[in-house]
Amino acid sequence: MNASPQTTPRTTIAVTGASGQLGRLILQDLRKAAPEAEIVGLLRDPGKALDLAAQGVVLRKADYEDPASLNAALRGVDRLALVSSNEIGKRFAQHANVIAAAKAAGVRLVVYTSLLHAPVSGLSLAPEHIQTEEALKASGLPHVILRNGWYTENYSDAIRQASQTGEFAGAADEGRIASASRADFALAAAQALLGAARPGETLELAGDRAWTLGDLAVEIARVRGGPVVYKNLPVPQYAALLKAFGLPEAVADMLAGWEGEIAKGALDDKGDALRRLTGRPSTSLAQTVEELLKV
């Protein structure tokens, strides 16, 4: 009797936060780059990502705060992208639940989206990322830590407003921002899941060319076809302005505080790890401004 040919089990790759902007992009990149793999999107409400299901992504209900749902959702998963939660203050507990479930499920690789220069960053976002990194290391799970810089799209509202009014305010002074597009960071995560990064690596990911908010004003003016002025304010004055616009006090103070840290260099970086992971130049500030201001 002839022996049956050996078959390689199908790899299952899962991404948390599947309905979020970054999670969606990672899943779409995985579908393109690894059509032979089973691609799984994990999210609280699978009904919010039916478009992904139509693209061949398997949707599984998973709640960061429900360990039982995580244990069920991660069953059979080989590789996992742990996209950081957007619930600041709850993040570490939520991430710890995912890490525990991944360990119980025997996940063979976890890729975590952390924060640029997290251990030395003055941004209030940093502590929960550091805690998560430490928990991953303590878990014994093979892992890759991607310390993501700022998404250029974080300034979408300011870009659109300045295009209409010809001005915008901030408190980042001449601080340089080595941002990239959300799509750049998503592709980096997908490539890390597919083997472009070695287990145990921690990579600082940032755009190829850093810019200041003054540079942003120049780009908006170019697309707008008229002058745009960036007005730099002291952090307390910028926080007061945000409150006057209707933001809750805690949120206004947090955002203004981030700008103050950007002024000190928190988001500047001259490395090329992002370009090496994606195999392409990062999306320029000019490209993103043009995309956001398309009519």
Question: How does this structure look, described?
Answer:
The chain has 295 residues and is an alpha/beta fold. It contains 12 helices and 9 strands. Helix 4 packs parallel to helix 5 (126-139) and helix 8 (213-224) packs across helix 12. The protein starts with 11 loop residues before the first strand and ends with a helix.
The CATH superfamily label of the largest domain reads NAD(P)-binding Rossmann-like Domain
The number of helical runs is: 12
Number of strand elements: 9
Average pLDDT, rounded to a whole number, is 95
Low-confidence spans: 1-8
Order of helices and strands: EHEHEHEHEHEHEHEHEHHHH
Strand order within the widest sheet? 3-2-1-4-5-6-8
The percent range for strand residues is 5-15%
Using the coordinates shown, work out and report the CATH topology of the largest domain.
Answer: Rossmann fold
Largest sheet: 7 strands, parallel
Decide which structural class fits the backbone: alpha/beta
* First-residue to last-residue Cα separation: 68 Å
Count the domains. Answer: 2
The top-level CATH class of the largest domain is Alpha Beta
Level of helix content? 40-55%
Overall 3D form: globular
List keywords for this structure.
295 residues, alpha/beta, Rossmann fold, UDP-galactose 4-epimerase, domain 1, 2 domains, seven-stranded parallel β-sheet, two-stranded parallel sheet, disordered N terminus
Question: What is this entry, summarized?
Answer:
With 295 residues, the chain is an alpha/beta fold.
